[in-house]
Design a protein that fits this description.
The complex is a heterodimer.
Chain A: E1 5-10, H1 17-26, E2 31-35, H2 40-44, E3 54-57, E4 60-63, H3 65-76, H4 83-107, H5 112-136, H6 150-165, H7 174-185, H8 187-195
Parallel strand pairs in A: 1-2
Antiparallel strand pairs in A: 1-3, 3-4
Helix pairs in contact in A: 1-3, 1-6, 1-8, 4-5, 4-6, 6-7
Chain B: E1 5-10, H1 17-26, E2 31-35, H2 37-45, E3 56-59, E4 62-65, H3 67-77, H4 85-110, H5 114-138, H6 152-160, H7 164-167, H8 174-185, H9 187-195
Parallel strand pairs in B: 1-2
Antiparallel strand pairs in B: 1-3, 3-4
The chains are: A alpha+beta, B alpha+beta.
Amino acid sequence: MAPKYKFTYFNLRARGELSRLIFAAAGVQYEDYRIDFPQWPAFKEKTPMGQMPLLEADGKVVCQSGAIARYLARETGLGGKSSWEEAQVDMFVCGVNDLIDKLCDAHFASDEAIKEERTKALGPYVTKFLDNYEKLGGPDGHLVGTSLTYADLAFFVGMHDVLKHRADALEKFPKLAKVVERVRENKGVAAYIAERPETNI
Amino acid sequence: MAPKYKFTYFNARGRGELVRLIFAAAGVEYEDVRFDWEQWLAFKAKGTTPMGQIPVLEVDGRMMCQSLAIARYVARETGLCGTTSWEEAQADMFVCGADDLLTNLITVRFEKDEAKKEEGKRDLATYVPNFLANYEKLCGTEGYLVGTSLTYADLAFFNVMHDILKVTSLDKYPKLAKVVEHVTADRGVATWLAKRPDTPS
């Protein structure tokens, strides 16, 4: 019998959205529990490492967004079809996390001068990131292999703000544009995106 | 036939040592390539790395990057990642948490701005006890973070504790002390620790 899943995070995309997209793409039911900031301090005490997101599967809890995403991908067949494919998928997802870290570092910098410096550095960073991924990505709209993996979903998550800022950001990257297209075409993902709360990050 | 592994990184522990510890614990042969800065620049200029970074792992001529993706692959191939999918998720969680601390330590270590460095050290003074308290609470009862035998989670914990153990006793953390005992008693790890280059970080 399918496990009873509960995914707990803030009402944000940030470090939770990849797991939500994996559930959506896989068509797996789960409780999408979103905590408000005021509720967080009390809730924090009860978590394994004082952080979110959390995944509960039949009552057992695990934290760390990457570990959760990898577990869900493994359980739903979206992790790659061999150990080496799994490693490549993993590599792409790690690279996206690095990008998201850079985006967050710029977005959340409190010092204006630092914020400006980091935002400026984003341009070349994103270009290099896209150059690498275009070079490494598969030709059929999938970063790895011949069907959707959570690497494609992670790339889609990472590109959310980049594409919002510049809709033509993938013009010079046809393979990556195809990846985004395939993700958007996925029935589960499309349905989820149509319904999901609109959030700043 | 066993794959031919080649692991390339700087002559440092940094983000490479976890992979080296996994190979050691698993008793798996590999080529341990260490670059100085000039060699790295020459290698980078060849354009053969997936994302312009090291470490990279080559397996029978195919190359991948991203230190944790590599660690997870090698752990998977050598049976050191957990014995079930859920155990794999737990081990993954512990490794991610250890990597968060490692990132903190590396950032503070290499911070050039004295004021920021001091602030970082102050943050670590609360971060580390929190980390240890969480890990002690979550640690299994058999002297392994997960399950009843060594996984790369134990190696990751041991690795991140390298400098911390020089100034902090694990007296208040008996389960974690046992983990460290098990790691250092492992034949492959002990041999490696005795012969590995001594590097500042």
